[in-house]
Amino acid sequence: MYDVVVIGAGVVGCAIARQLSKYKIRVAVLEAKVDVAMGASRANSAIVHAGYDCKPGTNMARVNVAGNAMYDEWCRDLCVPLKRVGSLVAAFSEEEMEQVKKLRDYGEKNGVPGLAILTREEALDKQPGLSPEVVGALWAPTGAITCPYEMTIACAENAHDNGVEFYFDFLAEKITTLRDAVEVESDKNVLFRSRYVVNAAGVHADEISRLMGDDSFTISGRKGEYILLDREASGFVQRVVFQAPGPLGKGVLVSPTVDGNAFIGPTAVDDSGKEDTSVTQAGVDALKRAGVRSMPQVPANRPITAFAGIRAIPSTGDFILGQSKANPRLIQAAGICSPGLSSAPAIAVETVESLRRAGLNLVERGDFNPVRKKEKPFRAMTQEERAAAVEKDPRYGRVICRCETVTEAEIAAAIERTLGKATLDGVKRRTRAGMGRCQGGFCAPRVMELIEKYGGIPMEKITKNGGASKMIVGRTRQEEK
Ligand SMILES: Cc1cc2nc3c(=O)[nH]c(=O)nc-3n(C[C@H](O)[C@H](O)[C@H](O)COP(=O)(O)OP(=O)(O)OC[C@H]3O[C@@H](n4cnc5c(N)ncnc54)[C@H](O)[C@@H]3O)c2cc1C
User: Fold this and answer.
1) For the chain, which end, N or C, has fewer CB atoms within 10 Å of the first or last residue's CB respectively?
2) Residue 341 has what pLDDT?
3) What's the rounded mean pLDDT across residues 152-162?
4) Catalytic residue among 18, 49, 204, 222
5) Could you give phi then psi for residue 112, rounded to 5 degrees?
């Protein structure tokens, strides 16, 4: 019998799990996939939004601004990168300038600090290389960049260190509400009994809600495609550069990443389905056009990869948070589209308060440890630190991913830290092995050898990202002997 089960191990579910781990309660996170951060939290713009584009008075506006302010502390404690580079919304016409001013007004009502309307010259000064066709911009100094999957992984590891249990390959399919508990059953007939359920199931949160008798909203998918540019592109963009928003959201942006790359994206393809993360040539072409419109010199023609994520668009137009009116044992964290990454810490705090109001007895643990430790990456070490690391563990001397300088020691540690099942993409997200210019062309087979060695998964069972994404079909007859 658990006190709370959280369905979904994206950034929202894992942040909630971490917040719950401060209390003397029994918590489990149930995730359909083999690892954390496999949904929208894997593929998004990685922006910690300042909070000016949410309509004042909405849940989104409240948790975005509060979440942004919490990011410094969460990232420091969890060892997650955060850069307060600031964001610009560039206007290309007087009409767009009016839109930008409306964003400023929204932001001021939402309590976003430091917003300023910039002239063309001031905007070009903030971001050299910005299109000379820009007529002005909104500047938000609290806009920041982070790493969304690192944030998710870190919240999960910290929650786990503080006693939260994680179960993977658990697709919640049947939920029965009893008088004083809820039973959640998987497609494989594994059953959990809990006093409360937190619904953090991303694009599928409407289905979980319906299983518990609440059909007050639906969720549709809106695909966003990206192109990731090589490190050389980071010299061209230092701020997050938005264009004036359109009917389908914040529009295409050009931004640096915390790891020293740059990207252009996302597109917005409405009603794209909930699982289709394919990238289209039309999408890539549109991104290249939009990217050079904002930043004419950005090398948009030299992407190293392309990817897509699915936004969970709620029919209510706002995040659905708090206790369900239809089922008091259900606490919603549903319809979390953008700015859900920015809002996750504040959603976590509010969700815990909703559970308290719903009747859960929350007594703080004296031994909660907010800190998640992560070794400094080999590529970021000084020569002296590298020498000391190799001396201590010779596996630091074996570089597996040459593009990103990732060593065997780091990959072994990542495999051992994985709460679910080690996969090629899971190792990539934890270490950056395969994230460089060759995109794993050289290191993938060697990473697979290490997954077999340290994760105990036979080669022919290793997948790229779970499910049917096997890397090899089998062994040759000669090898079998
Ligand atoms: C293109 C794009 C750009 C974005 N850019 C930004 C940005 O720059 N800044 C920002 O703040 N936000 C951004 N967002 C939004 C942000 O990514 C999401 O709000 C956030 O990741 C949502 O997290 P989540 O945990 O709710 O959902 P997910 O990360 O989708 O996690 C939900 C999890 O639930 C699991 N699940 C579903 N059904 C079941 C079931 N039946 N049983 C068990 N498990 C289940 C899924 O497998 C999944 O792992 C963007 C989103 C997209 C798609």
Assistant:
1) C
2) 98
3) 98
4) 49
5) -80, 125
The pairing of beta strand 144-146 with beta strand 82-83: antiparallel
Distance, in Å, from the CA atom of 342 to the CA atom of 99, rounded to the nearest integer, reads 22
pLDDT the model gives residue 420? 96
**DSSP assignment of 227-269, as one string?**
EEEPGGGGGG--SEEEEPPBTTBS--EEEE-TTS-EEEE---B
- Cα–Cα distances in angstroms (integers) from residue 479 to residues 159, 387, 442, 456, 474, in the given order: 42, 38, 22, 18, 10
Which DSSP string do the residues of 255-314 spell out, in sequence order? Answer: EE-TTS-EEEE---BTT--SS-----HHHHHHHHHHHHHH-TTS-TT-EEEEEEEEEEEE
Q: Which residues line ligand 1 (CB under 6 A)?
A: 7-13, 30-33, 38-41, 44-47, 49, 170-172, 200-202, 204, 208, 224, 266, 309-311, 336-342
What span, in angstroms and rounded, lies between the C-alpha atoms of 199 and 216?
Answer: 14
Q: Where are the domains of the chain?
A: 1-81+144-218+315-374, 378-480
Closest atom, ligand 1, to C-alpha of 14: 25
Type and span of the H or E element at 174: strand 172-177
User: pLDDT averaged over the chain?
Assistant: 96
Tens-digit pLDDT profile for residues 331-365:
999 999 999 999 999 999 999 999 999 999 999 99
Given CA atoms 176, 178, 182, 185 in this order, what sign does their dihedral have? Answer: negative
pLDDT digits (tens, 9 = 90+) for 14-63: 999 999 999 999 999 999 999 999 999 999 999 999 999 999 999 999 99
Which superfamily, per CATH, for 1-81+144-218+315-374? FAD/NAD(P)-binding domain (3.50.50.60)
Check whether the bond before 445 is cis (ω within 30° of 0): no
